[in-house]
Amino acid sequence: MRALLASFALTALLAGGPAQSTDAPANAYCYIGWPNDGQVLSAGKPFRVWFGLRYMGVAPKGVAAPNTGHHHLLIDTDLPPAGQPIPNDRNHLHYGAGETETMVELAPGKHTLQLLMGDENHVPHTPPVTSKKITITVK
Questions:
Q1: What CATH code is carried by the domain that includes residue 134?
Q2: CA-based angle 76:72:128, to the nearest 5?
Q3: Which of 5, 41, 102, 129 has the fewest CB atoms within 10 Å, i.e. the most exposed one?
Q4: Domain residue limits at 65
């Protein structure tokens, strides 16, 4: 039965259908420790973004362990559709090695940042484990 379900999930994923999401504790959440909401940052140089996580653990992509996942930083975008792998582009940055901080450089202007945890296959958990969306200004 497991093999049949795994085969179905793989077939759905390859066909562009919904992927099977991994359960997360209902109280789990992630947060952006820095920068703060409303922060004004200098243009032309990278700034540090550090991530926090409560009631779950961090594990690299490809590692299937209960109550774990890895961070994805969403820049100037909304949460992706539930049950689908998180895109990997300039608005959806993956930290599949288990990183908890990064350096980011953004063009001048207002930007939003939000974290979303993904499982070993970059699929958001059920329920989704997210941070509050913050707004920063680069001048």
A1: 2.60.40.10
A2: 95
A3: 5
A4: 23-138
Whole-model pTM: value is 0.85
Whether residue 18 lies inside any domain: the answer is no
- 118, 80 Cβ separation under 8 angstroms: no
Task: Please list the ranges in the chain whose pLDDT falls under 70.
Answer: 1-19
Give the total number of structural domains in the chain: 1
The rounded distance, in Å, linking the Cα atoms of 65 and 111 is: 33
Q: How far apart are CA 137 and CA 125, in angstroms?
A: 30
pLDDT confidence of residue 82:
86
Q: Taking Cα atoms as reference points, which of 8, 28, 30 lies closest to residue 19?
A: 8
- Residue 53 falls inside a structural domain: yes
14 falls within a domain: no
